[in-house]
Amino acid sequence: xxxxxxxxxxxxxxxxxxxxxxxxxxxxxxxxxxxxxxxxxxxxxxxxxxxxxxxxxxxxxxxxxxxxxxxxxxxxxxxxxxxxxxxxxxxxxxxxxxxxxxxxxxxxxxxxxxxxxxxxxxxxxxxxxxxxxxxxxxxxxxxxxxxxxxxxxxxxxxxxxxxxxxxxxxxxxxxxxxxxxxxxxxxxxxxxxxxxxxxxxxxxxxxxxxxxxxxxxxxxxxxxxxxxxxxxxxxxxxxxxxxxxxxxxxxxxxx
Length: 255
Fold this sequence. Notes:
Blueprint lengths: L6 H18 L9 H8 L25 E5 L6 H7 L3 E6 L2 H13 L4 E5 L13 E6 L10 H10 E12 L8 H4 L13 E2 L8 E2 L3 H11 L1 E9 L13 E8 L5
Parallel strand pairs: 1-2, 1-4, 2-3, 4-5
Antiparallel strand pairs: 5-9, 6-7, 8-9
């Protein structure tokens, strides 16, 4: 179904949906184990922007002391790993229950992590040029417009700061989501579109590759890294990658 909700209603709806995903034990809400954190403290760590592939280590500057904003990235997963690896981490998310997962891991494993609740399109609680790196895994599908996300990311990054992003390839949304759950691929939607399978599900927005990629460029970034990734399971996993990850850099002055 297509949503007719206002921006404020969408934010509240998706907050409620993700809080419930935490209660239901969705895989993107389960905190990493203590052994993962111990390994990260010893220099052995990996994180993901998309479901399967790990982010290339060369995409990161030196991790020790790096000021990282984990944007729309609650759940007790990537944020705690990066903190254990030596970064100064702030986790920002719309779901308080997701943020509680990061607090849980931080308390359990003696990590310093700051958590902030809010809408990823509004980072006004942060100063200009506050962070060295933004880690933004698949999540902007849950807001109706993403240029504000890119512009705010650009603002809060330092010069030469890095934005690492993961997002859904928009073509996925041409298919009937309900039937995809039954391993049936049936073209249904004209893009861009919004979709919500039930009142308990999060509202998702397909966006376009233009807003995802050219949107970063419009905000001022230079994209210098790219890869694709597959679903862990489901009918599309047999035929095509469904996710994209990009590395972008904020460069104020070009030679």
